[in-house]
Amino acid sequence: MAHGWHRDIAVLIARIGIGIVFTAHGWQKLNEQTIDGVQQFFTSINAPLPEITAYIVTYLELVGGIALIIGALTPVVGLLLFANMVGAFFLVHVENGVFVSEGGYELVLALGVGSLMIAAIGAGRISIDNFIPGLRAPA
């Protein structure tokens, strides 16, 4: 079934918005919190392999956010970012309730399900993926 440009514009806007937030959080981890600080935090919350996951999460958010913005490899990136948010949900936020002002999960929930949706529906025609066979959006 063909879809119109309105869908591609909506997906583009969603990708850019979600991608900006992930990129900002990855940049923050790398430049403000530092990898050492992220490792220490991950150790304090009993995250698995904090010495490794600090790097993975930081660069996934930074590079994955950029990939969402440009629409590159969105099925894979979207699933990885969703998994990242599932981890944040259970390891950090679930016990604090919904509201982000109280350390809750509303932001990770929105980012996670948004990433999952982008992984499922694809990046649309206004994307790098549109030029990759197998990822190309239907006309």
Question: Which key phrases capture this entry?
Answer:
4 helices; 0% strand; mainly alpha; 70% helix; 139 residues
Concise description?
The protein is an all-alpha fold. It contains four helices and no strands.
Overall description:
The protein has one domain. It is mainly alpha-helical and about 140 residues long. It has four helices and no strands. It has helices at about 5-45, 50-70, 75-95, 105-120.
Give the topology, please.
Elements: H1 5-44, H2 50-70, H3 74-93, H4 106-121
Helix pairs in contact: 1-2, 1-4, 2-3, 3-4
Specify Rg, calculated over alpha carbons.
Answer: 16 Å
- The run of helices and strands is HHHH
Specify the overall morphology. Answer: elongated
End-to-end Cα distance, whole Å, is 8 Å
Largest sheet: none
Average pLDDT: 94
Helical segment count: 4
Query: What is the quaternary state of this protein?
Result: single chain
Instruction: Report the portion of residues in β strands.
Output: under 5%
- What's the total count of β strands? 0
* Domain tally: 1
**Structural class by helix and strand composition:** mainly alpha
The residue ranges in which pLDDT falls below 50 over 5 or more consecutive positions are none
Share of helical residues: 55-70%
